[in-house]
Amino acid sequence: MIITVTLNLALDVTYQVPGVDWDGVNRVSAVHRRAGGKGVNVARVLAALGRDVLVTGLAGGPTGRAVEADLHAAGLPAALYGIAGDSRATLAVTDPDHTALFNEPGPEVTAGELAGFVRHYETLLAGADAVVLSGSLPRGLPADTYATLAAIAADRGVPSIVDADGDPLRHAPKGRPSILKPNADELARAVPGGTPAEGARALLGQGAGAVVVSMGADGLMAVTGEGTFAARMPYTVRGNPTGAGDSLVAGLALGLVEPDPWPDRLRRAAALGAAAVARPVAGEFDPDVYADIHPQIIIT
Ligand SMILES: O=P(O)(O)OC[C@H]1O[C@](O)(CO)[C@@H](O)[C@H]1O
């Protein structure tokens, strides 16, 4: 079973519009409301691929209840930890050529709530083959929370992936995660002033088992103990890139439980990321796009 941890769960709202007029009234052509936050999207993709998943994270208030109800309706197994604050919403506004995201910061979480969650997480880890730690931290959580959770997993022999930004990413290598997955901008913020390969090697030197850098249409780069690999995309998929990183992380998580050679893992992850762009909402991927692009990805 793969556990996905989403400390800042969200009700993801997606507005599809023909275009945005920032000075006028915009009519929305389609609305999607569903449980989100990065780990939820990772779990949706893994479940669609037929893998056992368990969603955990912090949920509270009416929004937390709506998230939990949607997970239930989607058939995604969940063991959320209750907090007093109201979980957040995110808004993605997407037209045929652009997507803008508005992500609320999330509730304030107390030290006692975090301690309770850590005990809950330790119990869940007993049945885990891998754990995915992803997304922003809600207010009140220390910046080294992912490092702490990854270290607890590592001490129990459970491999982990961390997908984070800013200080949580900077601290993450201390927790000895199996894989860190920043995008190129996140990596540049965490390790300023070098090339992506240099930045990735720096995080590797600080304790990460491997660093996979996502570079949008330019593909992926993986700096691993076995060498450095690149995945180049044969063409650009048009659509909504929201959630493409989560689909890619799902592919990397599969590589932790079915440890194929790195080139195969990268190809699968890159294809899943691209196939997610073809879908209007985060947490889904287009199987036809996946089947088409997977064999054409160039691995070096
Ligand atoms: O935790 P954040 O970094 O704010 O990201 C959350 C958001 O990202 C997405 O997972 C897309 O990657 C959305 O579903 C949304 O919930």
From TrEMBL:
Keywords: ATP-binding, Kinase, Nucleotide-binding, Transferase. Residues 23-283 form the Carbohydrate kinase PfkB domain. It is an enzyme of class 2 (transferase). InterPro entries: Carboh/pur_kinase_PfkB_CS (IPR002173), PfkB_dom (IPR011611), Ribokinase-like (IPR029056), Tagatose/fructose_Pkinase (IPR017583). One of its GO terms (molecular function) is ATP binding. The keyword tRNA processing does not apply. CDD domains: FruK_PfkB_like. GO terms for cellular component: cytosol. The keyword Phosphoprotein does not apply. Its EC number is 2.7.1.144. PANTHER family: 1-PHOSPHOFRUCTOKINASE, 1-PHOSPHOFRUCTOKINASE-RELATED. NCBIfam families: 1-PFK. Belongs to the carbohydrate kinase PfkB family. This is Tagatose 6-phosphate kinase. It comes from Nonomuraea rubra.
